[in-house]
Amino acid sequence: MANAIQSSTSATRGLEGVVVTTTQLSKVDGTAGRLYYRGYSIDHLAKNASFEEVAYLLWAGHLPNASEISKVREDLVACRTAPSGLVDALRKVPLNAPPMTALRSIISLLGHYDPDAEDNGPEASMRKAYRLTSQMATLVAAFDQIRKGKDPIPPRQDLNHAANFLYMLTGEEPSDIASRALETYLILLADHGFNASTFAARVTASTLSDMHSAIVSAIGTLKGPLHGAANQRALEQFLEIGDVENVKPWFEKAKAEKRRIMGVGHRVYKVVDPRARYLRQMALQLSGTTGNPQVLDIALKLEEVVSEDPYFVERKLYPNVDYYSAPALYMLGIDADLFPTLFAMSRVVGWTAHVMEQWANNRLIRPRAQFIGDLDLPWVPLEERP
Ligand code: CMC
Question: What pTM did the predictor assign?
Answer without folding.
Answer: 0.96
